[in-house]
């Protein structure tokens, strides 16, 4: 039996899935978008069989959906998915913030993400602001020092980026949260972990209301 091609010890299908997931997380692939096998095979320089294996991985994660006789599409989150995503975020992010060790390296990454978002806002690059926000929340989870939690949460944030993609005006979503992110990291820099966790809980509630409101208007 021929073994599937591999790259750095991982199957090429898994690597391809990573590349597609990254485009979802950066907002390049948006909810409902059709993914062409021919185009992506050319972009990633992989066979259709490898690409289809990558599609299957991401379909199981809820990022893609397959429609018979139509092809593969980027998933469109429903209301139940959005509510559940925010439930998971509260369970994971708030305790990670509340138990953060002083001087953790992830706090510096949070600060860097805030500064990146500010620079992107100045040039009205909301796609990059969104990516900086994903980096910010990735760093929050990194405070827990759990590689397994990091891997799990990357899937949650990819689905969140799809939920964010439902908002036609990205400035409406991202602009208010640049300052909120800055306040969060400032609290951590001052060692106020409990205050930061409480602040984040309210922050996630506001974010959920905005995203659900956008979903209901679509």
Short description:
With 218 residues, the protein is mainly α. It has helices at 12-25, 37-44, 48-60, 79-98, 105-122, 126-142, 147-164, 170-189, 193-217; strands at 6-7, 10-11, 34-35, 64-67, 71-74.
Within the CATH hierarchy, at the fold level, what is the topology of the largest domain?
Four Helix Bundle (Hemerythrin (Met), subunit A)
For the sheet with most strands, the description reads:
3 strands, antiparallel
| Strands in their spatial order, largest beta sheet | 3-5-4
Overall structural domain count: 2
Q: Tell me the span between the first and last alpha carbons.
A: 49 Å
- Poorly predicted runs: none
Gyration radius, in Å: 18 Å
Please give a structural write-up.
- The chain is mostly helical and 218 residues long.
- The chain has two domains: 69 residues, Arc Repressor Mutant, subunit A, CATH 1.10.10.10; 139 residues, Up-down Bundle (Four Helix Bundle (Hemerythrin (Met), subunit A)).
- It has a three-stranded antiparallel sheet. Strands 1-2 form a two-stranded antiparallel sheet.
Tags for this model:
about 220 residues; two-stranded antiparallel sheet; mainly alpha; Arc Repressor Mutant, subunit A
Furnish the topology, listing elements before pairings.
Layout: E1 6-7, E2 10-11, H1 12-25, E3 34-35, H2 37-44, H3 48-60, E4 64-67, E5 71-74, H4 79-98, H5 105-122, H6 126-142, H7 147-164, H8 170-189, H9 193-217
Antiparallel strand pairs: 1-2, 3-5, 4-5
